[in-house]
Amino acid sequence: WLILLCPVQVSQPPWAEQPGQLLGAFDEKAYLAGKQLKPGDDPYRDHAFNLQESDRLGSERAIRDTRHYRCASLNYDTDLPSTSIIITFHNEARSTLLRTIKSVLMRSPPSLIQEIILIDDFSSDPEDCQLLSQIPKVRCLRNARREGLIRSRVRGANTASASILTFLDSHCEVNADWLQPMIQRVKEDHTRVVSPIIDVISLDNFAYLAASADLRGGFDWSLHFKWEQIPIEQKMARSDPTQAIRTPVIAGGIFVMDKSWFNHLGQYDTHMDIWGGENFELSFRVWMCGGSLEILPCSRVGHVFRKRHPYDFPEGNALTYIKNTRRAAEVWMDEFKQYYYSARPSAQGKAFGSIADRLTLRRKLNCKPFRWYMENVYPELRYGTQSELQSLSFMLNRLNHALCQSLVYWKYTVCLQIILEFVDNFYA
Ligand SMILES: [Mn+2]
């Protein structure tokens, strides 16, 4: 009778046996052949990653299960609610977009996927999205003009029919059991906003590399996101490597959130354009208005990190980032916004539009002051006089530069992540 109590261990979940059947009437070969790199074309030109490698990989490659081994034996509720997956994109490569979708269909329990909503943010070729809607559960919505990530996601959320929203970037590969841990945490407490550990897919050869499991999201006063080590006291207190990691901010590309909580908290600031800064605004808002942010080590999703944006910003990259972060600082950072302006003096004179609606929202939700966030969520973020700050950031930059010099063009965040992973493996 003991056998009855033990679940049978299967190496492949039953729904993954025939990936071909997941696609219904969709003609994968024709879709991929419809757009191909011409001989002599620079494979990096359009997407800032090696398109030739991505095309060559195929849409259902196996990837290493990068989780801690203890994750595989965790159990999740059998009645977890389903989720709407929301993927926004602008001129994404067909092979990466398809691999993102297929990895979701292959590595998620089918009952958890209510639908996959693609928001085509006015890509040059409407067929990139349209053709994919022949895949069962996939829906395609196309914007009539360029709206950017933030308004596109809000559009996706408004049309979603599941009670839980999963935001996913368009050049990802989800790993084994990525979804259950996140839905479980949100089901237990709907005010949690959770994200996976984001593994690295090489932009050159598309190798799938494990990221360190000891990182959380942080930032400096210029509102530049960075991965950082979990503070030592918290690390010492972690007896269980499968435990959730509290994080001051999320990277923003991939997370799961209860839909009614998303709506209650005011969705996103839809006056932010294209990309950038929205993750700070959401993170401050979630913490200060009664929720929490977590990274779940048993959920892993690979993402192609790039060194530049392959698409253009109608108003310029830097200006858009400043407008968006300035809105976040003005609405949420109270007297601490002075440190943002010291770190980014050029932001001072830039237009950022009206924030009256967002200030009303903050009052209506009765959110805590930014000082509370500093004291309770991110006490590690130092603040002081301008010269102190400058010499500190100078030292950190020098250190970072020395560490990452040999890895030429990787964003230092990615670089740091990989160095830390090596260290991890060394001691493992
Ligand atoms: Mn991305």
Automatic annotation (TrEMBL):
Named cofactor requirement(s): Mn(2+)
GO cellular component: Golgi membrane
GO biological processes: protein O-linked glycosylation
Primary site of residence: Golgi
Domain Glycosyltransferase 2-like: 84-262
Annotated GO MF terms: carbohydrate binding; metal ion binding; polypeptide N-acetylgalactosaminyltransferase activity
Annotated keywords: Disulfide bond, Glycosyltransferase, Golgi apparatus, Lectin, Manganese, Membrane, Metal-binding, Signal-anchor, Transferase, Transmembrane, Transmembrane helix
A Pfam family of this chain: Glycos_transf_2
Pathway stated in the Swiss-Prot or TrEMBL entry: Protein modification; protein glycosylation
Topological relation to the membrane, as annotated: Single-pass type II membrane protein
Enzyme Commission number, as recorded: 2.4.1.41
Recorded catalytic activity of this chain's protein: L-threonyl-[protein] + UDP-N-acetyl-alpha-D-galactosamine = a 3-O-[N-acetyl-alpha-D-galactosaminyl]-L-threonyl-[protein] + UDP + H(+); L-seryl-[protein] + UDP-N-acetyl-alpha-D-galactosamine = a 3-O-[N-acetyl-alpha-D-galactosaminyl]-L-seryl-[protein] + UDP + H(+)
UniProt keyword annotation of Cytoplasm present: no
InterPro entries noted in UniProt: GalNAc-T (IPR045885), Glyco_trans_2-like (IPR001173), Nucleotide-diphossugar_trans (IPR029044)
Subcellular location per the Swiss-Prot or TrEMBL entry: Golgi apparatus membrane
Family, as annotated: Belongs to the glycosyltransferase 2 family. GalNAc-T subfamily.
UniProt xrefs under PANTHER family: N-ACETYLGALACTOSAMINYLTRANSFERASE, POLYPEPTIDE N-ACETYLGALACTOSAMINYLTRANSFERASE 16
The name this protein goes by in its record: polypeptide N-acetylgalactosaminyltransferase
Lineage: Eukaryota, Metazoa, Chordata, Craniata, Vertebrata
